[in-house]
Amino acid sequence: MKVLVTGGAGFIGSHLVSRFLDEGHTVAVVDNLSTGKQKNIHPKARFYKVDITRPGGLRRIFAKEKPEVVSHHAAQVSVWQSVQNPVFDARVNILGTISLLQECIVANVRQVIFASSGGAIYREPKTTPPSERGVVEPLSAYGIGKFSGDLYLRYFWHIYRLNYVSLRYANVYGPRQDPFGEAGVAAIFAEKLLKGESPVINGSGKQTRDFVYVDDVVEANYRAFHAKARGIFNVGTGKETSIRKIFSYIAGCIDPMLKPSFGPAKQGEAMRSVVDASRIRRTLSWKPRVSIKEGLRRTVDSFKAERTQSGSVA
Ligand SMILES: NC(=O)c1ccc[n+]([C@@H]2O[C@H](COP(=O)([O-])OP(=O)(O)OC[C@H]3O[C@@H](n4cnc5c(N)ncnc54)[C@H](O)[C@@H]3O)[C@@H](O)[C@H]2O)c1
Known about the structure:
The protein is of the alpha/beta class and 314 residues long. It contains ten helices and 13 strands. Nicotinamide-adenine-dinucleotide (NAD) binds at residues 6-7, 9-13, 30-36, 51-53, 73-77, 92, 96, 115, 117, 119, 169, 171-172, 178.
């Protein structure tokens, strides 16, 4: 099958590209390298350094590659940036997504798989984790953009019968996550601790997130691709882990004597974020396989290896 992955030079997208190639598919990557990295691009994938918002750019690539499946992972990924500059966020995450969907219609694409967000769109849970029917109440322009993507997918299905799956990810972590971005607390902590610095925990550290390992996310994508399912699916563990706990697991892999620093709480930050992923479990028999401790150990190992390769450590 011919697969086009937008955002394939990024964290999640690059892992997906490897999986599609390993399974014998042909892969083209579209990425403007704004947060993605050249070194993440698989040598067997054809790479187009193109911005998804650039008129004409996508049209030429679709005409050349004739993809059957499009995995849409390119996005403006910073919640903070989306609050500072909602117009830019909407340009990439809403208009960019619509442009891509239009090209899918022109090129007769069979299926689109979209990286949506469980963490950024649901109302903060008081009791049980939200299912896909949970109340949508995004608190950032980023969340609004991701939810718009879901709505446009449904619209394109109704009007054009463009088959789609939207995967609403919880907090994804793992090797290749950017340790210098604002999100990705595991990557940020691992990088700081390996440098011998003390990471800052915002607020009490008792805030919880649903951490799902990147290989499990890739598996969810691959099942969605294979089963030719349609609709919206939460992708998470249904379990909450506090930021303090994440710190202590990571410190445990490096030096258990290390201690965090505490800074002021981030304004507007949710205390809890978790999703109910029973629909994908029922429909696609997907369930997370990598425990948080194991996932963090693998993440720290990969950061150590990267530092050794780049010569950051003797
Ligand atoms: N990491 C998470 O926890 C998480 C959670 C929910 C949803 N997501 C979604 O998953 C996707 C991948 O996120 P990630 O964590 O791998 O981030 P990432 O920043 O590593 O990947 C995003 C990629 O998109 C590319 N990109 C950005 N704007 C572009 C544009 N205009 N044209 C072409 N390429 C562009 C970037 O260069 C980068 O390679 C995103 O859509 C993100 O919103 C991620």
